[in-house]
């Protein structure tokens, strides 16, 4: 499944947020193939549609989609030079699909700030610079290799070199690699093998105190302003309260607690949804009396590739897909009703699966 790495300076609230994540109610038993390590928290992706489906079908089993969050603690100033457990943590970041960057936006005299004062933009830049320095190292090494081929007149190498140099200048200017807008094809030859850290999609979490949970505060505003150019999302929450919310299992009590704080949704739920959207993930469903299940795919995937998420045989032997839309299922009550009304679509190999599709794959074995 997909992994988001939680990074940030010490004492900004990473562990508190991570605790909220790992005390969530993801039923690990449903996911026998994911190895759960102590620094990995699994959460289900909140999705109202699966509740609607469950209400209609009343299946024996319901399996929502999950995201994993990895606590990558220990990133400090100088990490790229090996300070702290620098290199180990940077290697951990290389493996995740996206970064959740927690920034301290709360005042608390009892909580030491490693840099002396609360300054979210400065804090964010400390982390960014460490990641940029590491990326610069990777880019410089690659440039050395490509320069040789470029000198022999290789056109491909020349084009790659130009792009590599652009990344180098960008990183040297203190900007993240994600701020460049090359297409995937253009990037592939130049940096495709480098797994740059600052090119990974990022969400900033402004960890504010309880009183600023809804409105945010001057710190979270400054942070939001500073990341505008990156097109990154900022999720404002209070990690301390989130960890309390996550403890409450009873749904009614949960809702009551939220409403007492004037919230309709937990910050964690917003963070999970934002992560899902950031990764351009969408969900399709399979729905039967035995099991209603949500499956994660990337936006733009065609039907056979989407089927491959269930089993590789589904992809190899793909014949066609029967597709139902949830509103039709709600209107006509069941599959037979949808079919009778002529609302069930039969789609082939080229069909691009849409978010929320209810799919039934037909395949050869
Ligand atoms: P980490 O080092 O980034 O993992 O930070 P921790 O999660 O351990 O938090 C550091 C300290 O800040 C702890 O004493 C937390 O209780 C406190 N803390 C975390 N989140 C908040 C918050 O939202 N408000 C306040 N006032 N304190 C917080």
UniProtKB/TrEMBL annotation:
Positions of ATP binding: 11-16
Record keywords: ATP-binding, Magnesium, Metal-binding, Nucleotide-binding
Domain OBG-type G, first and last residues per copy: 2-257
Gene Ontology cellular component annotations, sorted alphabetically: cytoplasm
Domain TGS: 280-363
CDD domains: TGS_YchF_OLA1, YchF
Matches recorded under Gene3D superfamilies: 3.10.20.30, P-loop containing nucleotide triphosphate hydrolases, TGS-like domain
UniProt GO MF annotations: ATP binding; ATP hydrolysis activity; GTP binding; metal ion binding; ribosomal large subunit binding
Entries under InterPro entries matching the protein: ATPase_YchF/OLA1, Beta-grasp_dom_sf, G_OBG, GTP-bd, P-loop_NTPase, TGS, TGS-like, TGS-like_dom_sf
Cofactor(s) demanded: Mg(2+)
Function noted in UniProt: ATPase that binds to both the 70S ribosome and the 50S ribosomal subunit in a nucleotide-independent manner.
PANTHER family listed in its UniProt record: OBG GTPASE FAMILY, OBG-TYPE G DOMAIN-CONTAINING PROTEIN
Family note: Belongs to the TRAFAC class OBG-HflX-like GTPase superfamily. OBG GTPase family. YchF/OLA1 subfamily.
Protein name: Ribosome-binding ATPase YchF
Organism field: Arundinibacter roseus
